[in-house]
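Q&A FORM
Asked by: J.P.
Topic: structure of Cell division protein FtsQ

PROVIDED:
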Amino acid sequence: MGLNSKIKSLIFAGCSIITIGSLAGFASSRQNEKTCEKVSINIDNEYNNYFIGDKEIVDLLTRDGERKLEGIPNKNIDLKNLEKRIEANKFVEDAEVYRGLDGNIKVQVKQNRPIARIIQANQDVYVDVEGHILPLSERYTARVIPITKSALLKPLNQEFFQDSTGQAYLSLLQFIENDEFWKAQLAQMHIDGKGKVSFLPQVGDHTIEFGKPANPEQKFKKLMIFYKEVLPVMGWDKYKRVNVEFEDQIICE
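REPLIED BY: S.T.
REPLY: Here is the structure written out as C-alpha cells.
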C-alpha cells in the first residue's frame, strides 16, 4: 500500500470516528431533551424469591413518593444515583437503570438469594449464597433450611461466613441449596459446640450426624446409600441416628 493510500485510510478512519461520535452526541442530546413519561420495572424472580416488589422499587426511586420521575426532563435524572438507591436495599443484589429509545426509564432488578435462615436467641436472619446476612421480610418468607447452634459457638454473623472456618459451612449450605433432593429432605441443621453438624430430616425419625462440614459430596453419597438400600428394607423408623462423619463408614443405631 502506497503512502497516499495509507493517508487516505487514516483520513477515512478519522472521519468515521468523528461522525460516529457526533451521532452519539446528537442522540444523547435528543435523549436529554425528552421527558420521562413512564417508569418500567422488571424484577428477576429466578429463584422464586419475592422479597421486593414494584412498590418497594418505586419508593426507592422516588424517595417514598416525594420525587416522582414522570414529568421530569431526562437531563435532570441521575441514573447512577437511582441505581445506588435501589442497590442499598439488602434484598437487591444488582440493579440497572437506563433510558429506552422513547426516553422513558427502565429498571432491571436482581434479588439476593438466601440459602438458610439462622435462628438464635437474639437473632433471626437469612444468610445469602455469598455469606451476607439479610433481614427477614414482612412481605415474603423464603423456604430455606433453618440453622440453630450451640451457645458455645461464636455468632453466625457475616464475619463468621467470610473466614476460612465459616466458608466450609457456607459451602455445605450451597451444596444443599443446589441439590433438589437434600434441599427438600433436610428440615433443620444444628451446629454443636465443637462445630459438628447434624440434621433433622423431613421424612424419617432419625438424626443425621454429619460431623464437620468438610467433604459434603462424599458424605451425602453415603447418606444416599442409606436411603436407597437400607431404609426401604429396614423401615424409615428403624433407626434413631445415622452417622456419616467418618470415612468409608455409615453407622446406624
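FOLLOW-UP: Confidence is low (pLDDT under 50) at residues 21-29.
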